[in-house]
Write a structure and sequence with these properties.
The protein has a domain of 57 residues. It is built from 7 helices and 2 strands. One of its GO terms (cellular component) is nucleus.
Amino acid sequence: MASRESGRIREADKKRVLDEASRKRRARKALEALEQDNYHEDPHADLVMSKKIPKFQDNLDTAGGAGGSGGAGSSNQKKKAKRSKGADYYRAKYRKNFPQLLEEDKVQHPDGPNYFTASAAPSRFPERHFCAVCGFPSSYTCTACGTRYCCVRCLKTHQDTRCLKWTA
C-alpha cells in the first residue's frame, strides 16, 4: 500500500524558486514600474484656451435673449461673462510638484530641520510583515518569489495574479 502525500508537496518540485538576487531585482523592477505610473507634470498645463471656441452656455443665452429684450440685455450678459480668474485657478495652474517643494524647503531651511536632514533612530521592535494581497499581518512567505501572504485565499490570489508575473 502506497503512502499518501500532499499535492502541495508533490508540486513543490515543479515550482520555480528565485534566489535572493533575483527577488531583489524583481522588487526593484516592480517599484520602477510603479514609479512610471506615479504623478507626472501635466503636459497640458500651459495650454491657453482659444477665445474663438464657442461656449455652449453663451449660445443658449443669446438665442433666448435675441427675441425681445434688445440691446440692454446683451450688455448685462457681457458683464456677467467678463470675470476675473480667482485664486483657485492660479493655484491649480502653477501648482508645485514634490521636487520643487523639496528644493524650496531646502533653500528656506538650509541648516534647520528639513526633508533631507530628518532622521529617526532604528526601531527597537522587530520588523513587521504584511500580506502583499490584502495588507493584513502575514506569517507565510511564497516559496517561489518570497512575497508575503496571510492565508490560503491570499496565496491562491497571489499565485493566480502576482507570483512571478513581472520577472525580468
